[in-house]
């Protein structure tokens, strides 16, 4: 079988991902070309761009296949070994961490501001994470703290852990945030009961609970917007 058409060398030099990035900038590359730069090589049956396209096209999920990938998942693609799986996992993790940079001193003026800050990190979680955004007197973010991981209920999310973080960091107010791995953002009865409990605790301590944001897949639910806080 002649594999000439499957090698990266069959692509004109200026159209090869790495050369194209260096000459025109990363913003001029497609998603598959960017992934190809990370992977560097394909297999004997297809060049690296084709391999990247195949990963992105699976189930028509695009970059979500990278964000939600695992070593086992990546290795199911012919041409992906342990080293390339590790590279893709590293890229996914770095992108999530970058999305959380420089959140301190961002001012929260609306529920959508809080949702934007947390969305790209939390929408891909496969478990429920409960976090709090700690705010100063001007509603600037002081810190985001992770409180618990797992199913959301009052025994796992305890007021002691929530408000000890707020006290230690001298927060004036807090915003509760958790995700739904299902992608839906509507609150459950447990969500509502927990919110009410934490709101009452905040009133006693003088630390206002401004909102509870539930992160879905590109959507969010605000207790404040819905009149529940």
Question: What are the defining features of this structure?
Answer:
Cytidine Deaminase, domain 2, 229 residues, alpha+beta, 5-stranded mixed β-sheet
Molecular structure report:
It is a single chain. The protein has 2 domains: 4-98, no CATH class; 111-222, Cytidine Deaminase, domain 2 (3-Layer(aba) Sandwich), CATH 3.40.140.10. Helices cover 40% and strands 15% of the residues. The chain is built from 9 helices and 5 strands. Strands 2-1-3-4-5 form a 5-stranded mixed beta sheet, sandwiched between helices. The termini are far apart.
- In CATH, what is the class of the largest domain? Alpha Beta
* Cα-atom radius of gyration: 22 Å
How many domains, as an integer? 2
Uncertain stretches of 5 or more adjacent residues = 1-5
How does the major sheet shape up?
Answer: 5 strands, mixed
The 3D shape can be described as elongated
Number of beta-strand segments = 5
From the structure provided, what is the oligomeric state, counting identical versus distinct chains? single chain
On the 0-100 scale, what is the average pLDDT?
88
> Would you list the SSEs in sequence order as H and E?
HHHHHHHEEHEHEE
* Count of runs of 4 or more consecutive helical residues: 9
Question: How are the secondary structure elements laid out?
Answer:
Blueprint: H1 17-24, H2 31-39, H3 48-57, H4 64-67, H5 71-75, H6 82-98, H7 111-122, E1 129-135, E2 141-149, H8 159-168, E3 173-179, H9 189-205, E4 208-215, E5 220-222
Parallel strand pairs: 3-4
Antiparallel strand pairs: 1-2, 1-3, 4-5
